[in-house]
Design goal:
The complex is a heterodimer. By secondary structure, chain A is an alpha/beta fold. Chain A contains twelve helices and seven strands. Chain A has a domain of 201 residues: 2-enoyl-CoA Hydratase, Chain A, domain 1 (Alpha-Beta Complex), CATH 3.90.226. Helix content of chain A is 41%, strand content 12%. In chain A, strands 1-2-3-4-5-6-7 form a seven-stranded mixed beta sheet. The longest helix of chain A is centred in the middle third of the chain and has 20 residues. By secondary structure, chain B is α/β, with parallel strands linked by helices. Chain B has a domain of 156 residues: 2-enoyl-CoA Hydratase, Chain A, domain 1 (Alpha-Beta Complex), CATH 3.90.226. In chain B, strand 1 and strand 2 form a beta hairpin. The chains are: A alpha/beta, B alpha/beta. Chains A and B meet through strand 2, helix 3, helix 4, helix 5 and helix 6 of A and helix 2, helix 3, helix 4, helix 5 and helix 6 of B. Chain B: It comes from Methylorubrum zatmanii. Chain B: InterPro entries: ClpP/crotonase-like_dom_sf, Malonate_gamma. Chain B: This is Biotin-independent malonate decarboxylase subunit gamma.
Chain lengths: 310, 243
């Protein structure tokens, strides 16, 4: 039993996913009081490496894993804390997620939920983080092959960058909010390596258009779009558990086709607004300001953004 | 070490003395050759080439072709790449999906009974490394290979630590420093091959000794490069219960 961090009476379900801590997200996402953490902060399994860099550690290394219930369904959950080291994958952080996925192979829950909030690999533990990401991706495909859906939820301040973006695209289904960016190279990384002409990281509108939740949902990079509330993420996760694609040759052949078609159709586009225009959006410039309801209406009118090819 | 890196043509002629159909186009390696009475499929990246959406898609298509054949042909993933291609276009098109897709095709091939072996003979980094060599069942390296997540000057910039201090730390801290030996100690690279012994025999031996499970965290503990990962993962499995 964990203490309820969100008080539904005072804050209601309108608690912002983006603003919430990883623990508050888990707490609001799952059935009240159902979360049972494994290797909790009281065990102080901290990074053995950060002291070398004179950096502070977290008792949970920025990764919270455990089990709980989602509308009565038994689920395993992992949540990254983006406010600690940008949610980056270090040795302990990554190993907790690897362990969770391996436990799922044994326990066969009704779903595994991964609450992403990460800048990618933690550079101070880069080799351990990168290897853990590879282990996580292998484990996710095994869990999916065993018939357990793996649902990614992306709406934290650190987004899902670097290896986090690759793990996300290995999941069965993804929920994303407007604030949930998904990308491999971050804006600053592209600018540092290729110059501001290639990507101006200070142009926040460009960042959202290129990597943000609306663009990913419109182009099939995510399967559901959620308001920035814990309740909306809960509803979307529940919906996606019931319709997760298998991990098999047919799915990957369909994904191959989907990704080839995307390249053929949009490969010469310079900006997301061009892609949205080609998708059939009448007023692409208006998309960033659309409310969730208006965006959902737009999605329904396009009719081709939902697929089983992941 | 002053030994020159083994080149892709050297690797291919060592693997396939009778000839092969492996070609390199835009740095993307693809083809196959006769191997132990059957075939060995090869995909890869050559010439320190960055992996973008186009390349990942082409390599994934090659892997799926092998899987569709369904004859258990082993797949060698030969890598001398840059990192992921860093560009606005690649991210606009969803590079994370393309790289993950390539990794998934390799993981699917493995699940379908195709032994997958990574061979790093040059550089590789970050997303390109995860999408290719690190998505195989077992990864081996040749001396002179230089996998990294990020080079030390970049690490110095991000961590705001002086480069000379990082270089000193790198000598006995395998968890963050670039290089093949550190990736071996982390468990990501299973073994370094001997360039003076026949390569085909060594690859055949690797295929014959494929680990059944993902043993990279155990290797990391035994070799000291990832001291706690295996223990943490095992404890999670042990303590987890469905509520």
């Amino acid at each position: 039993m964990s203490e309820r961090i969100i008080d539904p009476a005072s804050k209601g379900w309108a608690t912002s996913w983006y603003e919430a801590s990883a623990r508050a997200r888990i707490d609001g996402l799952l059935d009240a009081g159902s979360f049972r953490e494994v290797i909790g902060p009281e065990q102080r399994r901290m990074s053995p490496h950060l002291p070398l860099f004179d950096l502070p550690r977290a008792f949970d290394d920025g990764m919270i894993v455990g089990s709980g219930r989602l509308d009565g369904k038994a689920v395993l959950v992992a949540a990254q804390e983006g406010r600690f080291m940008g949610g980056a994958f270090g040795e302990v952080h990554g190993a907790k997620l690897v362990g969770l996925l391996r436990a799922a192979l044994v326990l066969k829950p009704e779903a595994v939920l991964i609450l992403f909030d990460t800048g990618g690999v933690r550079l101070q533990e880069a080799n351990a983080g990168e290897t853990a990401i590879a282990e996580v991706m292998r484990a996710i495909t095994q869990v999916r092959s065993a018939g357990v859906p793996v649902i990614g939820l992306i709406g934290g301040r650190a987004g899902a960058y670097g290896g986090g973006g690759l793990i996300a695209a290995t999941c069965s289904r993804l929920v994303v909010s407007e604030g949930g960016r998904i990308s491999v190279s971050g804006p600053e990384v592209i600018e540092t390596n290729k110059g501001a002409e290639e990507f101006d990281s200070r142009d926040r509108a460009l960042v959202w258009r290129t990597m943000g939740g609306k663009h990913r949902r419109l182009t099939g990079g995510a399967d559901a779009y959620a308001d920035d509330t814990v309740q909306a993420f809960r509803r979307a996760a529940l919906d996606l558990i019931g319709r997760a694609p298998a991990f098999d040759l047919a799915t990957l052949e369909a994904e191959q086709k989907r990704l080839e078609e995307r390249m053929a159709r949009f490969g010469d586009c310079r900006d997301a607004t061009e892609i949205w225009g080609r998708l059939g959006v009448n007023d692409p410039e208006a998309v960033p300001a659309l409310t969730t309801a208006a965006f959902e209406t737009l999605l329904a009118s396009l009719g081709e953004t939902t697929h089983d090819a992941r | 070490m002053t030994r020159a890196n083994t080149t892709l043509p050297e690797i291919l002629s060592a693997l396939f003395p009778e000839g092969h159909s492996v070609t390199v186009e835009d740095g993307l390696v693809s083809g196959e050759g006769p191997f132990r009475g059957g075939r060995l499929a090869v995909i890869g990246i050559d010439g320190d080439t960055a992996l973008g959406v186009d390349g990942a898609c082409r390599l994934a298509a090659d892997v799926l072709d092998v899987v569709r054949r369904g004859d258990g042909t082993p797949i060698l993933v030969a890598i001398d790449s840059d990192s992921q291609r860093m560009s606005r276009r690649d991210e606009l098109l969803g590079l994370n999906e393309y790289l993950a897709h390539l990794a998934k095709t390799l993981l699917l091939a493995d699940a379908h009974g195709h032994p997958t072996v990574g061979l790093i003979y040059g550089h590789s980094a970050a997303g390109a490394f995860i999408a290719t060599a690190l998505a195989t069942r077992v990864l081996v390296g040749l001396p002179g290979a230089n996998p990294s997540v990020m080079d030390l000057p970049s690490v110095a910039r991000v961590t705001k630590l002086p480069l000379d201090r990082l270089e000193a730390m790198a000598k006995d801290t395998p968890v963050f420093a670039p290089g093949l030996d550190n990736m071996v100690r982390t468990g990501a690279v299973e073994a370094v091959l001997d360039p003076d012994r026949p390569l085909a025999e060594q690859i055949a031996a690797v295929i014959d000794a494929l680990p059944v499970e993902d043993t990279r965290d155990r290797a990391g503990r035994e070799r000291g490069g990832r001291p706690v990962a295996e223990t943490i993962a095992a404890q999670v499995i042990r303590d987890m219960r469905l509520g």
